[in-house]
Amino acid sequence: MSRLKGTTRKLLVSFFLSAVITSSNALSLHAAKLNRRNALAAGGSLLVSGAMPHSVSAKQQSIASRLDADILTMPPSSRANELNGIDNTYYPQWLAGTWDVTQTLKNTNTPLGLKFIGGPNGSLKIAQESFEEQQKQLNIPVHLQLRFVNTKFGVAEDRLFNTRQRLDNFAGRSVVSSVEYANVGGSNRSSVLALGGSENDPLQTTFVRYKGPAAQKTFLLSHGEEKIDSTSFAAYESLRSIFALTNQNTAPPVTTDSENIWYFELVNEDTIKARLRIASYLNAQSDSLYFEAKNKAVAFADYVLTMKKCI
Ligand SMILES: *[C@@H]1O[C@H](CO)[C@@H](O)[C@H](O)[C@H]1NC(C)=O
Ligand SMILES: *[C@@H]1O[C@H](CO)[C@@H](O)[C@H](O)[C@H]1NC(C)=O
Q: How many structural domains is the chain composed of?
């Protein structure tokens, strides 16, 4: 059985920390330190799923309303679009371009109670520390760039560019060595090319190598899009990140599940105001409180973003 040795454990934690603080939330940081194991038990109530791209109108407000909901249930995995191999989250045309972004954490919450962010054993002490750690980030703007690109299939997030921007800027230093796309059944290069797409079109899955012996693979578990009107758009992506050491160490990978919920509003052609909620969920096999949480989010981090188009 692999147990993390002190130094390696610190290393993993430190790489993981920068990643978590970045793309998601410091609340799950301590839980993550304790070697969460990969376990998907998606289920529960579905609001809007990428599996039903054409059934949006009946559920018009449901993604946007997730930004303000007191309780959220993890969306189930979407599989229906995997047949074409070009599945992705596609955005409105007005998001295409490169943007100077200010992203600010405005609110954090533990909707089921503090103990649910207390790691595998639901430790209140760990929970308290995690919560205080994240409170320190409140109202501190982080500057980064985000890019959305035109493809034959729609406007997609440039995940290579955006992932690096998020990880480096939230860490406050350069931590990323490389970011690549990885092929999965639902989204892969050969399908994109076969259907007339390009070598550079974004795929769903990313593989990050850190400046150190650690790597992170992030899978899109499900997504949904909601056009509200000509200048407002909501979307969600549920994501699974697996962090692992890339040296000889046999420590088991660290897995976290989260959901990003977006609301974009075009103010004028060069300005977008956006909101982002990052919701964290527990894993079945690692968290003793998993069943008590009933697939509900245990932490919210709510951000506001101002996006100015780069020339
Ligand atoms: C790419 O996607 C197609 C369609 O889903 C699938 O048949 C194929 O196996 C995928 N290829 C890879 C390398 O995942
Ligand atoms: C959780 O509880 C188990 C059993 O009491 C204990 O062996 C383990 O060390 C605890 N883990 C943490 C991180 O506190």
A: 1
CA pair distance 297, 311, nearest whole angstrom: 39
pTM: 0.82
Q: Which domain holds residue 78?
A: 6-309
Averaged confidence pLDDT in the chain: 82
- Distance separating alpha carbons of residues 18 and 176, to the nearest angstrom: 10
Q: Regarding beta strands 271-281 and 299-309, do their DSSP bridges make them parallel or antiparallel, or are they unpaired? A: antiparallel
pLDDT tens digit string along 166-182?
999 999 999 999 999 99
Q: How far, in Å, from the CA of 124 to the mean position of ligand 2?
A: 13
Which residue from 79, 188, 189 has its CB within 8 A of the most atoms of ligand 1, so it is best to mutate?
188
Q: Is residue 134 part of a domain?
A: yes
Instruction: State how far the Cα of 184 lies from the Cα of 165, in Å rounded to an integer.
Output: 23
Assess if residue 1 is contained within a domain. Answer: no
User: Could you tell me the two tokens for 131?
Assistant: 């919560």
Residue 289 Cα to ligand 2 middle (Å): 13
Which ligand sits closest to the CA of 79? 1
CA distances from 281 to 71, 72, 274, 298 (A): 12, 10, 23, 6
